[in-house]
Amino acid sequence: MPESTIDYGYLENDLGYVLRRAQLWVFQDLIRTMSPVDLRPAQYSVLVIIHHNPGLSQISLASALGIERARLVRLLDQLEDRKLVERRPAASDRRSHAMHLTLEGERTLASARELATAHRQACLEEFGGQNNYTTLVRLLAKFGAPQ
Amino acid sequence: MPESTIDYGYLENDLGYVLRRAQLWVFQDLIRTMSPVDLRPAQYSVLVIIHHNPGLSQISLASALGIERARLVRLLDQLEDRKLVERRPAASDRRSHAMHLTLEGERTLASARELATAHRQACLEEFGGQNNYTTLVRLLAKFGAPQ
DNA sequence: TATTGTTATACTCTATAACTATA
DNA sequence: TATAGTTATAGAGTATAACAATA
Q1: Who's near B7: CB < 8 A, 6+ residues apart?
Q2: Which domain holds residue B76?
Q3: What is the mean pLDDT of residues B109-127?
């Protein structure tokens, strides 16, 4: 039975359903385009946030990414094993770590950024142009955004 | 260090990042509002598709949902254990199953539908109105949609 | 040979609770 | 007491490969 005969009911007007389909597509394309630097979406976003906020704590980082601090620990373990990030002792609070990118981390992020350009272009084309893309990002940014 | 000092860099203009944040919010709200009928988003969408396409095969169902057929097996096992769906032998192809909702499955879906109304209302309010919601769904439906 | 459903495996991600060392 | 980081566990979801029954 071909897919074209499927009736999606009200699911095709369900925000959760279309969000999931879209995110699946975008993440798969991101994973594919990032494969030369071997970064998954979560790892990439960790590097971006640390780059723009050197010295921030793990709890701030987890909050910015919208993930649990327990999940962040293993993410950072992997990136630290690959010598891309560093946990340094925080000056003011000895419980806390100050997160920094290593030189290689900065280099990897720079490469990732170039690859991200190709990914963004793929999204633009898949989606139907700059205007729709911009509108979409603007509308989505209102949801669950860290204030 | 308060979150308000975080610099998200270009991440806040990254489609994958905002998609993930939005989906997280919507799914969490959906899980919360569906808790009286104990259905997760994937389970709910299974019931919806079967209801609108009684007798369809597992492979068609998996394709409609954008999940692997191996993943669907366990989803259906759970729902069948709860007597919400039935795998019946397909008339034309003895390899295949014809999926149906039980009477209790139809009742549960009807309850879920009513709860979904509250969820939709929560999304509308979180997001900022019917117009934005409709625009968003329309733009997202172009991504990775089954043709 | 190819397809449908199944089983198995490995990995990612989410959600929680509890522990330690500091505050 | 509360907080930052960690460890452990359970479940959900994703991605593959292989298998039996059937086409």
Answers
A1: A52, A53
A2: 40-109
A3: 93
